[in-house]
Design a protein that fits this description.
The protein has 4 helices and 11 strands. By secondary structure, the chain is an alpha/beta fold.
Length: 211
Amino acid sequence: MALPEPYYEDEAVTIYHGDCREILPHLPKVDAVVTDPPYGIGWVPRVNHREDNHIWVDNKAFDPRPFMIADRHLFWGANYFCRLLPHSEAWFLWLKRPASFDNCVKTFAPCEMAWIDFKGKQRVNHHVWDGGLRAGDTSNRDFLHPAQKPLEVMRWCVRESKADLIFDPFMGSGTTLRAAKDLGRKAIGIEIEEKYCEIAAKRMAQEVLPL
C-alpha cells in the first residue's frame, strides 16, 4: 500500500482518511507523536454523541508500542495501558474540574493523565472542562467528538513537546492538528471515520487564531 492522497492538506497540516496502522509505515519521519487514542475501557458517551456510538467505540485493548516511532511521545489515557510502555516519571496531569468541586457528586474522572517521554518532571494544567462548565476559547466549546480534548490543553501538549512536526494517528475532530497550526508547527493526522475527517478539515481551514 502506498501513501494515500491526503483528505485535506495545507501548508501546515496534512490529514489522511484511513486506518493508521496501514498508513503509518509510509509516513515521513515525525518529531513527536501526540495523541488521545482509544483506551480500551468500554467507555460510552452518556449525554453527547450517543448517535455516534455505532461508529465510535472504545472496547478494544490498545497497544501503544507500534506508535513509538518518534523522538518524543505523549499518550493520553496511558494509565490504562502503561504496562506496555517504558517507565516514565514524567506524566502530564490535566485537572478538569473547578478547584472547589465536590468529587463525591459525580462519577466522572476529575482529571486525566498522559504518559510522556519528554525530559523533565510531572506537569499539571488546570483547565475547567466538565460538562457545561467549559473555560477558554468559546469557538472550541462545541461537542465535535465523543472524546474531544480542549484546544487549550492540546496547545499545552504541543508546546511542551518542542517538536516541529507533530503526528496524531487518532486524530478525531483534529484538535491536536488545530493546536499545532495555531502554534506555527506542522502536523499530520489520521482518522478512520470520514465524518471526523470532514470536521477536522473544516477546523483546519479556519484562520490561525491569535495567541
